Amino acid sequence: MALLVQKFGGSSVSDVDAIRRVAQRVAASRAAGDDVAVVVSAMGDTTDDLLDLAGQVSPNGPPERELDMLLTAGERISMALLAMAIQDLGTPARSFTGQQAGMRTDSSHGRARLLDVTPSRVAETLKRGEVAIVAGFQGVSEDEDITTLGRGGSDTTAVALAAALNADVCEIYTDVDGLYTADPRIVPTASRVTRITIEETLEMAAQGAKILHLRAVEYARRFGVPLHVRSSFSDQEGTWILVDRPLTGALHQDGTTRHTSDTTTTEDPMEDPLISGIAHDKSLAKITVVGVPDRPGAAAKVIGAVSTAGVSIDMIVQNVSTSPEGLSDISFTLPEADGTVAVAAVRELQHELGVADVLYTSHVGKLSLIGAGLRSNPAVAQRMFGALAEAGINIEMISTSEIRISVITDQDVLEEAVRAVHRAFRLDSDAEAVVYGGTGR
Ligand code: ADP
Ligand code: ASP
Ligand code: MG
């Protein structure tokens, strides 16, 4: 008998039929003798619809406390309906809000971090042989205010619950059959990954593969929670994300790892780079600060001003100064939604720093190739940049780490770029990936 935490995303509970299908799956796991705690997201696009409503009643921006109160209603609806549907099948079930499940957070509304997880009522429910259902994405602050963990945060609720209950596995049920070598909505021939290390998954999530909330992966790594990402629409085995394993490269659905040498086999040379997949992020913007005096402290001032404004910066590139006046340019990327705030923060400094200009480009995207041993092998970058050049795609910025090479391109050509690089590394499979539902938003 195992203890399972099963998380169902919005597209898995989008309507009555979907909720009843999930209820059957949960009841079947319980009937097989496992203890089951469920974490559920809001139905379909409920969270977006609620956000839209809030925007309509407060065009100047909704107060964050009230917005959290509103958004958490989405998960309450689905948790109660799922509990009813499970009980209707004759399996005892009980639903709990994040607060009732002991999800204590800090008070940063909209992006609250978990401070303490004490799911005693959930544990009691399981002990009685009942199914416990917990509303995802929410908690309660030290001041007893309701908080949310940020978009996609139900994954984090599930992993935190699995860690606190010492569950055998945290199953993330979604609308695709697991983690693929690229978003199957963009690359239909992407290969399903059967197992992958937590480090590579962390990098995929950090670089925009939204199948898993980044904080959920971080939490799983910290607490050693094994994750199994799979579809709620099929019975296929999904992707196992392994904690505490060396970087062995992702194992793909045809039973091989993807090396970069010309044959694809598990017996390739030990030091060959291993490709896990490609992540992309479509919602970025770029700021270029032109003519920054080339002296100590200038970059710190520019970047400091932006982060003080609460904007998280991603890629930063500073040109080597070649001008006789000793001026250089600094470019960085940031979430497109924070563009106005960031530009204002830099412009405030323009005079003090003697900066020539501040240029803003919205609508850029990032493609990241992820795998083990990439930086130490220049052939990988060569193949990646060659594929982009052949597709006529201009690279605006480049950054690398030990397990990643990222490029910034125009948003309009990003999807084509993903397909070109995916092809170049022979990541395509013969079968088409199934996308069962959802909008991919
Ligand atoms: P849920 O509602 O179940 O939380 P999400 O929409 O958050 O589901 O995440 C699932 C989606 O993630 C898929 O439908 C797919 O479009 C997208 N996705 C992005 N990158 C990948 C990837 N590498 N593998 C699989 N899915 C991916
Ligand atoms: N319902 C929330 C969202 O749409 C949380 C989640 O689904 O994980 O972001
Ligand atoms: Mg999600």
For the largest beta-sheet, the strand count, sense and barrel status come to:
9 strands, mixed
Which parts are unreliable, with pLDDT below 50 for 5 consecutive residues or more?
261-268
Q: How much of the residues is beta strand, in percent?
A: 25-35%
Which value, in Å, is the CA radius of gyration? 23 Å
CATH superfamily of the domain at 3-174: Acetylglutamate kinase-like
Strand-pairing-aware structural class: alpha/beta
CATH-defined fold name of the domain at 3-174? Carbamate kinase
Give the overall silhouette.
globular
| Strand element count | 20
Properties at a glance:
seven-stranded antiparallel β-sheet, binds adenosine-5'-diphosphate, alpha/beta, binds magnesium ion, Carbamate kinase, single chain, globular, binds aspartic acid, 441 residues, nine-stranded mixed β-sheet
